[in-house]
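Help!! Second protein's tokens look totally different from the first
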Amino acid sequence: ALSSASAASGTAFYEQGKIRISCAVYGPRQGRRSNARAGSFDCDFRYAPFACSWKRRSHVRGADEKEISLILEHAVAPAIRLEAYPKACIDAFVTVIESDGKAATIAAAINCISAALADAGIEMYDSVAACSMGLAGARWVADCAQPEEDAALCSMLIAYMPGADEITYILQHGKTTPEQTDQAVQTCTDMCARVYAVICRYLQSSLE
């Protein structure tokens, strides 16, 4: 659907451990609704056929990729000033070149989109940073690799705007006690703040 990445309004490449993700943002451009008072944000998430060590992906977008696309939209859209772009749409195309842990890959994709949106000059309330946690026994492990995620009793993903101190999205699989949940949320938001600082440094260096 895209002619080339060079035609994108903004791009970013995100690398974390074995995870490698690229994102191209297009827009704002004319949307599908001519009477919309606010713009729309759409995300297209895909794994490269060779991205996952546990499964070879098809070139046709699967149900899990469509589900992750929606997660990314819900996590990132609250940070975008969509009311500043009436009748327009902003599209993010995310490609996972290498994956290592599904939850960690989704979190990395959110971080990559945030950097690409800023590179595109899209007006935002704040950048969104994300982190995932896996419960291994009695302790939480940040951004689990695939073997760690498979063995985890529970997983949690949080997307967070540190500047606004607002969680935009939270996703949990498995059961936890209230104390474990509080610990995971606190650890996740702390990690998000650290990721946010890295994204800000990247954006500042890109302007120099």
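Here's the second one for comparison:
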Amino acid sequence: QIWVPGLRMLLLGAVLLLLALPSHGQETIEGPEVLLPVPKGACAGWMAGIPGHPGHNGTPGRDGRDGTPGEKGEKGDPGFAGPKGDTGETGVTGVEGSRGFPGIPGRKGEPGESAYVYRSAFSVGLETRVTIPNIPIRFTKIFYNQQNHYDDTTGKFYCNIPGLYYFSYHITVYLKDVKVSLYKKDKAMLFTYDQFQDKNVDQASGSVLLYLEKGDQVWLQVYGDGENNGVYADNVHDSTFTGFLLYHDIE
């Protein structure tokens, strides 16, 4: 009978042990902050250890796939103007375009100078071969003398319009030598000499520009003695004297 109480105590301890075990064969130990699982196969008196230190960071993972394009953003502000570029090469000339429409007539211009035209001209010829040395030759065949500035009675041209004049003469030479001169205001301005060739007809000519004032006179005359008076004219040969105004004096 002495072992009966001990046997009872043994049986009671076994029952309590069975009751203490988890129903699924796993115990947990509760702490103040965490609940740690009890390793399988641990004894009834097992207690959790101190938490370990955090592990080291792992190696970076691979880049992920590109995302889908986002929506188009708003237009930004214009940027600053860049520097001027180099001049380009000249392009090929284009095809000529069609003719345009007539433009609008311009405004009427300012009144100009007087439309009056200053005229002074003559052209005369010799009708006879008789000439007297050292006096004006009288050219009486009139080709043009509309302004009557040449006087066929004296053989002189009288300046009525001051300005620049052109004078010329063409003399037929026959039988004798010829020496003629063009005079202005009793002064010889031009000399012409032609030596007659026997059994031949020669020509002597001259021309000059002269500025004349109103009242000046111009004429031709033979100078020297009668041996140099071979001025000639007939039905087929002429000796002529011509002059006309180029520019009138505007002052």
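Reply: Different proteins will give different token patterns, so don't panic. The first helix runs from residue 3 to 20.
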